[in-house]
Structure formats: C-alpha cells, structure tokens
Amino acid sequence: MDERLLSCFVKVYELGSIHKAAEKIFVTPQAVSKMIKKLEDELGRSLFTRSPQGLNPTVYAHKLYSTANVIISECSRIKSEFTEENINAVTTLHIATTYGVPKYLTLQFVTDFYDTCPDVHLDLVEYPEYPIYDMLQSGRVDFAFLPQPIDLINYEADFCFSHDFRAIVHKDHPLAGHSIIRYPDLNGYPIILKGRDFSLYPHNITRFVKGGLNPEILLEISDDSLIVEAARQKRGVGISATFLAEEYADSQVRIIPFEDETFVRHVFLVHRRGQKMSRAQENFRNFTNSWIEKNKPQKS
C-alpha cells in the first residue's frame, strides 16, 4: 500500500475536507480526490460519504485511521535509518510514562542510558494512562511505562517494578497513632487520591468497598505533592505511592501502611505487539530490562 495514499487519507480524515487536505499537502483537490478513489479501489470499501457539512468517515475509514499512522511512522523510520547522512545522527525515542515512574527510576536511569547509548535521545513525558494507550496505538510513542492491567492482546509488556501505597494524615489526625490502616478505619474521613484517568482507580474503589470502606472522595488529582499537601492542611486522608509520599512528607504528616499487602501497583514497559523495532528501540528495551535487574529499585 502506497504511503503517499495513506498520508493523503489521514489529512482528509482529520480535516474532513478535500480542499483543506489539498492545501496541507500542496496538491490540487482533484489530485486528492483521485488518491482517495485509488485507495478505496484497493480496499474495495468506501471511506467517506458526503453531506452538506463536509465529508463523513465510514466505519472502514475509522478502522483504517487507527493503523494508518502506525504504517506511516514505520515507513518514515525505515527511510530515516537508510538515509546515509542519518547513519551517525542522534535518534529520538518517545517514551510515555504514568505519573511517578521517572521519580521512581531516578535520574540515574537516564544518565546511565545516555552513557550506554550516546546516539539516542529520550523524550520522556508523564501522562494519565488512558491517553498513553492512544499514543501507543497511533505510533506517537515508542514505549510506555504502564501499570496493570495491560491489554496483552495488542501489547507486549516487560515487568519493571512494584510499589505499595500508604495513607497520609496530619500528625494530629485521629488516625495518626495507628501503626497500620484497615479499610474500615477510613470510613467517615474524606479521601484524596489519584482519579479515574488512572487504570487503578476502579480497581481501588472495588478494593475499598469489598474491604468494608464506603469511600468519601474529596478530591481526585494526579499530583502526589498536592495529595500530601491536602493531608498536611487537615483536608482529609491522602492515599499515595509510598516512595512519593516519602518524597513530599515532612514532620507535620504521618505515613501509615495498609493492612492489605495486595494494595500494590505493578509497572511494565509496554510496546505494540508485533512492532518491528529499530536498533535504538531494541537498545532501550534491553537496557531498561538489564538496568532494572541490576539496580533493583527497592520495593516500597
């Protein structure tokens, strides 16, 4: 399938207009129409229907769009690798992570990778988990650090590390003297925790309810420093990963473990199943697995 046809299709799909797509790719509207017609002939399916409001993608267009960007990205990568002037150039890998992973791995992980692979640059960004899956599927990122549950039908995953969670309360809070927290202990107290943009949220709510807690959620937020700060200001009970709670805590708060030892997050390095890896991608995957095995960040 011609990469140029796919690129044309993507522009038409995203802009909903033959004329707007033509302007973007610097060809005539007639040429765009011909390319879309050729692609439809190859697939044996109509990709768009026309209405007074513009072009409407068919179900086949939606299906094609979900993989077209991946194909275009792979074609671009292959061409780049075989371009003579790029043989010794720096390659950029795009890595998405759920919040907290870079802090858990520490800057030493990145420093050691650059020492090992000086010709590879990392573009490392943190997002909630659900957008990361869209980025993986579309080929906008090469890898992602994600927690369970992982869709193992569409993705491959290498286990990286686990960490547990703690309750954070002000030193004068009624729970501050507890050496361990049971879920029913939290009844009647407002809770601050990571919200529904994170895949663990529904599992944690189920965990709480089964454990005897009827959670009163005061605030859902992605910033663990604010979870700790809310507890410091006596707004409620914060729930955060232990290593992050310890990072932001001071003498005004208490960090208390949960009785439930299964209240743990397992994090994996994830990539698209069947993804043909470049040399840089292979190096990053191998480095990550060996570095974590060697350094074994302490499970907290």
Largest sheet: 9 strands, mixed
Give the domain tally.
3
Instruction: Please tell me the overall pLDDT.
Output: 88
CATH architecture of the largest domain: 3-Layer(aba) Sandwich
* CATH superfamily descriptor of the largest domain: Periplasmic binding protein-like II
Q: Helix segment count? A: 11
Q: Could you give the count of β-strands?
A: 11
Helix content: 40-55%
What does this molecule look like?
The structure is a single chain. The chain is α/β, with parallel strands linked by helices. It has three domains: 3-81, Arc Repressor Mutant, subunit A (Orthogonal Bundle), CATH 1.10.10; 89-161 and 266-295, 3-Layer(aba) Sandwich (D-Maltodextrin-Binding Protein, domain 2); 162-264, 3-Layer(aba) Sandwich (D-Maltodextrin-Binding Protein, domain 2). Helix content is 43%, strand content 24%. The strands form two sheets. Strands 3, 4, 5, 6, 7, 8, 9, 10 and 11 form a nine-stranded mixed beta sheet that branches. Strand 1 (48-51) and strand 2 (54-57) form a beta hairpin. It is elongated, with a radius of gyration of 24 Å.
Task: Give the helix/strand layout.
Blueprint: H1 3-15, H2 18-25, H3 29-43, E1 48-51, E2 54-57, H4 59-81, E3 91-97, H5 101-105, H6 107-116, E4 120-126, H7 129-138, E5 143-147, E6 155-170, E7 190-193, H8 200-210, E8 216-220, H9 224-232, E9 237-241, H10 242-248, E10 253-257, E11 264-272, H11 279-295
Parallel strand pairs: 3-4, 3-5, 7-8, 7-9
Antiparallel strand pairs: 1-2, 5-11, 6-9, 6-10, 6-11
Helix pairs in contact: 1-2, 1-3, 1-4, 2-3, 9-10
